[in-house]
Amino acid sequence: MIFLRINDYCILPYLSSTDQSGFPLVARIIQIFNQKNITIADSQGVIYHSAFLSGSLKRQATLAVGDFVRYEKIANSYRITTLLNRNNQLVKNTSAARKSVHVKNGIQLIAANLTDVFVVIACDQRFTISLLERYLLQFQVPNTKLRIILTKQDFQSDFLKIKQLILKSYPKLAIFAVSIYDQPSFAIFKKMLSNKSTSIFIGASGAGKSTIINQLAGQTLQKVCQVRFGDQRGKHTTTSARLYFINDHFGYLIDTPGIKEIGLTNTAGTDVFADIDDLAGHCRFKNCRHTNEPGCAIQAAIQTGQLDATRFQRYEKYRRELDHHHKNKQGKQQ
Questions:
Q1: With 60 as the cut, is the pLDDT of residue 40 above it?
Q2: Is 320 contained in some domain?
Q3: Per-residue pLDDT reduced to its tens digit, 229-257
């Protein structure tokens, strides 16, 4: 019988083979710098630096923080040979010109094998419903819970305005607020974490992702930097995704660099506009373009005030963006 070790990096269920010394051959990706500089951890919580990819794995797969891999020890080095099956993955659009161990065809793998996704939004930064919808569309990951964390709630008027805007459009969305000046707010947040969870924090620079992790850890794991005066934009202090073991209560947390823009590539978040999809199913014609066709249920809903016209316009914009992405992807594969 295998007993779960809290700091095993969730590796134990993957163990099926060992080397002659009895040490496990399975590790978890902690951080990726390049193909020859990858930080991994084994089931004993031992961290190895400067692991590298085997030649065959370079050609076969891209890696992400949180991945489970097989490795072998060669002299004083560690060669990663096999990528094990992922439970899920979180990706974002990136420059097609960028080359990295976790970038392929303009899609960057940020993390894998997650249980929780926390979108972090600072109350002192510019906010729009469109920004929120892009987060919801792109970062809803299968087999995870997505929640919104509003930081810097001490900016009371901004906090109330943002919360009201979100709840008006998405009343069922889980929203939590935290502030370093309000420690009880972290008590509520902590209840969402468990020792078996792997949680990722996504948001703009200066949103407070690293601050939250430092608060949970009770120490400075990541440097933080104040936002720039004038445009309220954060400076990049986190330069690559990094998985941390916090303690036996909060499990594993992944900090990520600030996101500048959110290009859509994900189709899993379709429930964001489930009401519009449902209306479209009631149109008289299956190929209805929802403009001036007779029997269009969407235009009828707009006329009666059931559906907000600007929300539908955003929906159409996102759909065109996703269609464009998939056409480009298919063109590259041919």
A1: yes
A2: yes
A3: 344 444 445 678 999 988 888 889 999 99
The Cα 37–Cα 117 span in angstroms is: 26
Three-point CA angle 234, 251, 82, nearest 5°: 90
Of all helices (H) and strands (E), which one includes residue 183? helix 183-190
> Helices 183-190 and 209-217 meet at what angle, rounded to 10?
80
Q: pLDDT tens for residues 63-93?
A: 999 999 999 988 888 999 999 999 999 998 8
DSSP character at residue 12: G
163 is an annotated ligand-binding site residue: no
331 is annotated as contributing to ligand binding: no
Q: Which domain does 214 fall in, by range?
A: 90-97+105-255
DSSP state at residue 268: T
pLDDT at 24 over 90: no
Is 258 annotated in a binding site? The answer is no
Q: Is 230 annotated as a binding residue?
A: no
Same domain, 52 and 167: no
Does the annotation place 241 within a ligand binding site? Answer: no
Choose the final residue of a domain: 201, 231, 255: 255
Q: How many domains does the chain have?
A: 3
Estimate to the nearest angstrom the gap between the alpha carbon of 269 and the chain centroid. Answer: 13
The fraction of the chain above a pLDDT of 90, given in percent, is: 52
137 burial level (CB within 10 Å; 0-12, 13-18, 19+): buried
Residue 295 lies in a domain: yes
Please indicate if the annotation marks 41 as binding a ligand: no
Overall size of the chain counted in residues = 334
Query: Which residues does 264 contact at the CB level (< 8 Å), separation at least 6?
Result: 93, 134, 137, 138, 318, 321, 322, 325
297 is in an annotated binding site: no
Whole-number Å distance between alpha carbons of 334 and 317: 26
